[in-house]
Structure formats: C-alpha cells, structure tokens
Amino acid sequence: MLLKVSGKIISPSNPGLVRRYAEVIKRLVDRGTRVAVVVGGGEVARRYVECAKALGLSDGAADSLGIEVSRLNALLLSLALGDYGYRPIPRSVEDVERAWSSGRVVVVGGLQPGQSTSGTAAVIAELLGIKLILYATNVDGIYDKDPRRHPDAKKLSVVRVSELHRFLEQGFEAGRYELLDPVALGIVRRSRIEVVVFNGFDPENVERAVRKEVGTLVVPW
C-alpha cells in the first residue's frame, strides 16, 4: 500500500504523531504489508513558498523550496522508523524503484516542480503496481460541499473518481494544492487504484483505512 501523509501531520511540530506513525507503519510491515509513504511539506513549505513569491521568484522556484521541505519531513519519518526505513530519501522515480527493491519502507517527499505530493503519491503507486492509496489528511473524508462554509455538508462514504470534480475545489498554484489534483485523478482512474481519504491526526486510522472502515473510499470505476 501507499500512504500519503499531510505535512500538517508529519512535521517537527508533532513529534508524538511522528512517533505513532512510525509505530503503526512498523506494525503493518511486521504483518507482511509492503509500505511506501509520501509526505507533504505542510505549513513550513507554504511559508517558504510565500517568501519566494514575495521575492518575485517563479512558481518553479517556489515549488522547489516546498519540495525540499517535504523531503525533510520524509527524512524525519524515515529516521523515526529506524532500520525499517530506507535512506537516503529518494529524489527521483529511479531512486524510488531502487529503494523499493531493498524491501524497506520507502519514504518520499516531492519529486518535481509543478506536481503536488498527492500527484507524486499517484505516480509512485502506479510505478510500483500498488492498488491502494491512503490519504491521511486534516479532514474526515470528502464532503458534498465545503463543511467549513456549509453546516449541512455530508461526508461521502464512497465516490467515483469521475464525480470528484463536483466536490473538490482545485487550486494549482505553488503551495496550494488540494486533496487530489488532475495528475492524481488521471492516474488512479487509468490504473484502477482505490483511494481512501481520512483524518490522519489519529494514526490508528491508518489501519482502519486499510480495512476501509473510515473516511471516504474513492473508486476508479
């Protein structure tokens, strides 16, 4: 399986969460599950992106800064995994393939400018033949409308990829990617990858998401 974790969760601000994620991942590995992880840049990355824009730098340069922050978060989790984690942190799809062949947990940040870590997660899942992506986010799942603005918003238990454009507001400038960008949507559809979007602030939800007991299940058909 591939676990995509928000940088709001795996960050130096949350050492307890980082430790608990490492424990959950190690339990999954001990039960025979192969695990790859993609970590986002979170608030620190956004601050670098905002600084880059204030300096008049290009979106590509801003993205590059965010990618480096996501790689630091990835290294933090990999180190917390101890001998379970592969190091150094892969910086390309070729690095990812080599790392995966080691049999260890591969933890990755961003790979290239213009691509969100959600897109990176889908690219890696397709590359490695993984058919389940778990998106650990700061929301309980996908809603029919923005729950922050609509108290009557309803969480969806199952949704088709083809329907997602109705529920996700997409913003693709550097540092402001949403849950699933067009790259991720296209890949999960063509490779028939299932996705579970769930609240990642409870690390135990990872194991529940594997069993599809929490969040929203996104099906590619």
Summarize the topology.
Elements: E1 2-5, H1 15-30, E2 36-39, H2 42-54, H3 59-80, H4 93-100, E3 106-108, H5 117-128, E4 132-137, E5 158-160, H6 182-190, E6 194-199, H7 205-210, E7 216-219
Your description of this structure?
The structure is a single chain. The chain is 39% helix and 14% strand. With 221 residues, it is of the alpha/beta class. It has one domain: 3-Layer(aba) Sandwich (Carbamate kinase), CATH 3.40.1160. The longest helix is centred in the N-terminal third of the chain and has 22 residues, at 59-80.
The number of E-state strands comes to 7
Provide the spatial order of strands within the biggest beta sheet. Answer: 3-2-1-4-6-7-5
Described by the principal axes of the CA atoms, the overall outline is globular
Which H/E pattern describes the elements?
Answer: EHEHHHEHEEHEHE
By secondary-structure content and strand pairing, the structural class works out as alpha/beta
- The helix tally amounts to 7
Uncertain spans: 170-177
The percent range for strand residues is 5-15%
A few lines on this structure:
The protein is α/β, with parallel strands linked by helices and 221 residues long.
Provide tags for this entry:
alpha/beta; Carbamate kinase; seven-stranded mixed sheet; 39% helix; 14% strand
